[in-house]
UniProtKB/TrEMBL annotation:
This is Aldehyde dehydrogenase. PANTHER family: ALDEHYDE DEHYDROGENASE (PTHR43570), ALDEHYDE DEHYDROGENASE TYPE III, ISOFORM Q (PTHR43570:SF16). The lineage of its organism: Eukaryota, Metazoa, Spiralia, Gnathifera, Rotifera. One of its GO terms (biological process) is aldehyde metabolic process. It comes from Adineta ricciae (Rotifer). The active site is at E221, C255.
Amino acid sequence: MSTTSATTETPLDAIESIFKDLRQTFNSGKTKPLTWRRQQLERLYEMCDKEKDAFGAAANTDFHRPNSETLIFDCGSIRNECTHALNHLDEWASDEKISDALAYATLDKYVHPEPLGIALIIGAWNYPFLVTLTPLIGAIAAGNCAILKPSELAPHSAAIMATMVARYLDPSCFRVVLGGVDQTQALLKGDIDKVFYTGSTAVGKIVMKAAADKMIPVTLECGGKSPVFVADDANLEICGRRLAWGKTINCGQTCLAPDYVLCSKATESRLIPYVTKAWQEFYTTNPANSDSYCHIVNSRHFDRVKRLINQDKVVHGGQTDSNQNFIAPTIMSDVTADDNVMQEEIFGPLLPFITVRDEQEAIRFINSRDKPLALYVFSSNKDLAKRVINATSAGSTCVNDVIFQIAPPSLPFGGVGASGLGAYHGKYSFDAFSHRRTVVYAPNWTEVLLVQRNPPYTAKKTAFIENLSKVRRRWRLLPRLGFWFWAFAALALAVAARIGLRGLQENKWNI
């Protein structure tokens, strides 16, 4: 298998020519036919199916990521998104006819989705294929050209992506740019129509400023500290297993990972043994030697996560190995809002526990911080879960599980506030890379009415146009009355038909 060197960077002077080539392609209209879009989606599906082992090997080289995690969470999810887009592309791309008030009933009006142009997709290293290629599905489905900028922190994954995109997709429409900050800055200054960024909030602000200078739309997927509230009535055995899974897949380097747990002291003492038991089942008592346990991506991030560990509060784990960028699954108890581990997104396998009395105290704690990308609630009481949901704000919420809300392709994925801007997946990906263009056809025969809008103005003309264009409030009982009207009409028709049939049978109609 031939692949680009992991250290290869795209020359800065080549970026301008990439933009020119893509703009020429887009202006030619090549990306607009649905047949072309379907073909590229099929090719992307094929790439993530045939080359999944190569992708897995690259991610394993980058940060000891288990092959199964790349196959399931990256390649499998991308293929599902491709299939979902292929199943619904005709529906998404069709013009949406608009039913409006009687005042505008004479107009033929619809909303026409059109591609934005050239999209810049800036990916992240933690799920190197998922967060770069999933947005590309939306860009393709909507009819755009795209430049992919994978993260330089996973260089082997970035290199194999560049090789395979060039091999499977139309090179006149899709290009991969390799490199670091210099390449990213050059791309943000280029001839782009949309920016889609996945990464930290700090860099997201820089990307948003660059997009504002160009007056172009931006989608930001940033992350944050996603809380977990565990009620006293939760099934703690299931909760412990699911928390253990969500916290340590990808070694906790997941934007949706449960960041910290809020629960009562009694629930904490019962829950922690279930979490630790699950980790031992997953990775044995020595996770450093487990092929199923990922490592921290590099030494810089290793040092950052290690500094967040307060050994005085560790009740499980805490072991580290700088030679392997290894940090064991770790639980800290008696954590407060002032601890280092609560000052930033952990993005590692540390699970701090904070004691609260009840859901009201948990709600106050959650609302005192930035809005998270995800909020998790474990409870057997659906009403309690709804109370927590209604009293807080988050990009998404999952009750009695973690991360799983991202799986259905029909649901939007995105943040709110500091955790992100905009959403994608399924139809939401198509919309993220589309402009919804209003189209109205005004018939000539309405001129006899519209001539009244022309100067010179008179009180009579003004009153006529005001009355003609006025949108009336809908009577709230009308839908219900409409149902009973049609129900009565159907009943009357049935009765009339029965009377008529009886009349025929008795020959009362002299037929």
